[in-house]
Amino acid sequence: MEEVKLFGHPASPFSCRVEIALKLKGVHYDFIAEDPSNKSPQLLQYNPVHKKIPVLLHNGKPIAESLVILEYIDEVWKTNPILPQNPHEKAKARFWANYVEEKCLPALFKTFWSVGEQYDKDKAEAGEVLKFLEDELQGKKFFGGDSIGLVDIVANFMAFWFRTIQEALGLDVLTKDNFPKLWEWAENYVNCSDINQFLPPKDKLIAIFPPPYMGQHLVAFFQSRLAAAAAAK
Amino acid sequence: MDNEVKLHGFWPSPFVYRVIWALKLKGIEYDYIEEDLANKSELLLRYNPVYKKVPVLVHAGKPISESLVILEYIEEVWPHSPLLPKDPYERSVARFWINFATDKGRSAVRSLFWGGGDGKKEAAEQMFDFLKIIEEQALGDKKFFGGNSINMVDLIFAWFACWIQPMEQLVGIKVLEPSRLPSLHAWVKNFKEEPIIKENLPDPERLLAYYTRLTSNLVSKPT
């Protein structure tokens, strides 16, 4: 009897990645929602180094870090592989997953915190980063081809979290006009039934952003930007 | 197309060395192309248009970039003399530590060696805290991170075996002290004495000269 538990958060993109993968493979699991301001003793025991979600618990053994968890899930449950079988294609998928995580995530989220000239600069930089992904999507519905793969799962924050906050702030970093393929990919992605059941309601997402560990000054800044954007509409 | 293996590298790079060690530990023949990073070859720019960096492995004409991606590829294509455990859970533990070294290690190195003069003591303590976690939780009482033999985790942490000394000399702060980090200190010695590693290490004098030049360039940059 296999026991699979996921310590996560319903509004976290990192936790969501794991849920998508488990769903794609038809793995049954218990979801334990963690409160970041009041972490359970179990979470602290299972991830003493980072003390963060997501943590997957499989037959009592914990795995932390979403990308490490995704590789583990693909190795243990062989249905609907999320990585290609061919080693070179697999390497390409890992390369892009790494690119999305290391380059895209910081570049995109940086644009939430700048205004005026600095925003223009950050927007341009984010654009340079996104260009490579736009090219990579040519002739494909998803980064994984016809179906969702590792890169799509890792890029979940781009398709939903980033675009939701971008819209609330009235920003224009990733738009249908400037990145048509990426926009189309994002629309297909969030409408996928294997995905959208794990996406939090937009207002809930905005209500808990930014996470407290980013600092109270950013929370206050974000609130003021939201208010300004709402007034401008 | 034959199964030729080529590696584009740059001699001071620990990321390039990871790949060299993996190839040699598995006895894979390859051609090495030294890149001048101030004057990158057309091939490199074509093979790695996203980052324009080394290492790049080219196998049967197809390029792979990013050292961790390259190592996983090598492990997959040439599974003999394994560098990762066979058991999926043990593999996930290895990957966790590789991820930790890459993520937290990089920021600790950055603040200590490339950061400004003021926060040096704090940065040194941050580096020590990082290394303490590695020593206690990743290494434990094992000879190597891989147990009795070297594995991918050792190759990733090798930065601390060979590159930390020139940096310590430049900054004037000893981080990897035997009294404070005894197991890690022993690991450094054991790692450097492993047969294939021993024959493939960067020259410490040359490394020190290289980093001295690099940091003096940074200092003389206009603010």
Automatic annotation (TrEMBL), chain A:
Keywords: Transferase. The keyword Transport does not apply. It comes from the Eukaryota. One of its GO terms (biological process) is glutathione metabolic process. PROSITE patterns: GST_CTER, GST_NTER. It catalyses: RX + glutathione = an S-substituted glutathione + a halide anion + H(+). It is an enzyme of class 2 (transferase). One of its GO terms (cellular component) is cytoplasm. Residues 2-81 form the GST N-terminal domain. Its EC number is 2.5.1.18. CDD domains: GST_C_Tau (cd03185), GST_N_Tau (cd03058). This is Probable glutathione S-transferase. GO terms for molecular function: glutathione transferase activity. Residues 86-214 form the GST C-terminal domain. SUPFAM superfamilies: GST C-terminal domain-like, Thioredoxin-like. Transmembrane segments: none annotated. It comes from Coffea canephora (Robusta coffee). Belongs to the GST superfamily. HSP26 family.
Automatic annotation (TrEMBL), chain B:
GO terms for cellular component: cytoplasm. The keyword Secreted does not apply. PROSITE patterns: GST_CTER, GST_NTER. Pfam families: GST_C, GST_N. Residues 87-211 form the GST C-terminal domain. The keyword Transferase applies. Residues 3-82 form the GST N-terminal domain. It comes from the Eukaryota. Belongs to the GST superfamily. HSP26 family. This is Probable glutathione S-transferase.
